[in-house]
Design goal:
Layout lengths: L9 H21 L4 E5 L5 E6 L3 H6 L12
Antiparallel strand pairs: 1-2
Keywords: Membrane, Transmembrane, Transmembrane helix
Length: about 70
């Protein structure tokens, strides 16, 4: 990551890496399978996608396998 972020922003980068680590830890505790993120040129880390947690998947009430989707 340092190769893409100018040295003046490295303290900001380390702060956001710590916050990303906390986010990934919380996502793991909630049962989320994937978290995608990107690092901006100023060191800010953006979470672009976070998979649904187990509770969110259960709340969605998926349809049975025998459900016919044809109109």
């Amino acid at each position: 990551m340092h190769a893409h972020v100018p040295p003046v922003f490295w303290p900001v980068l380390w702060l956001y890496i710590f916050r990303l680590w906390l986010t990934l830890l919380k996502a793991a505790l909630e049962g989320r399978e994937t978290v995608l993120y990107t690092v901006g040129r100023t060191g800010i880390i953006y979470v672009t996608h976070m998979a649904d947690s187990e509770a969110e998947r259960r709340a969605r009430c998926p349809l049975g396998e025998d459900f016919d989707r044809t109109p």
